[in-house]
Amino acid sequence: MQKEKYDEMGNSDSQFFPACETGQPVISGLFLVFLGTILFLGATGVTILGHSAWWLVGLLPAVYLGMMAYNLYQRDGRVSSRVAIMLIWGMIPLLFVGGNILGFNIGALWPLALIATGVTLLFSGSRR
Question: Which of 7, 54, 90, 107 could bridge to 65 as Cys pair (CB 3.0-4.6 Å)?
Fold first, then answer.
């Protein structure tokens, strides 16, 4: 088993790259293949569902935040406030992508994530 590396601030690689924590570079590799495919499709003018392939880039932060939420859930053993906050913020890119595909402008709705995060923090503060 590899020893975890820390930088001068005390942060480990696994803190920012969930694939490093499990020792599975497969997730990082899939991420890069997906990103490269999106960039290639966008550069060549390929459309998906009548839209440019660039809207798929919105899925990347949603997947990353979902992976972070799952890792936190495994560590905490329950849906803690930090897991809920990651899930809330992971839904924002999905809403933007879905709204754009369906033709809705949901750009003004992102402050709802701030409200939901604040409510989550308020209700989780009493459990500490």
Answer: 90
Q: In this prediction, what percent of the chain has a pLDDT beyond 70?
A: 78
**Token pair belonging to 88:** 């809330």
SS3 label, residue 51? strand
CB atoms within 10 A of CB 63: 16
Where does 1-128 show beta strands of DSSP type E?
Answer: 47-48, 51-52
CB 60 within 8 A of CB 88: no
Q: Specify the DSSP class assigned to residue 48.
A: E
What is the pLDDT, as a whole number, of residue 8?
60
d(CA 5, CA 12): 6
pTM exceeds cut of 0.90: no
- Phi/psi at 53 (nearest 5 deg)? -70, -10
Per-residue confidence at 106, pLDDT binned at 50, 70, 90? confident
User: What residues contact 29, with CB distance under 8 A and at least 6 apart?
Assistant: none
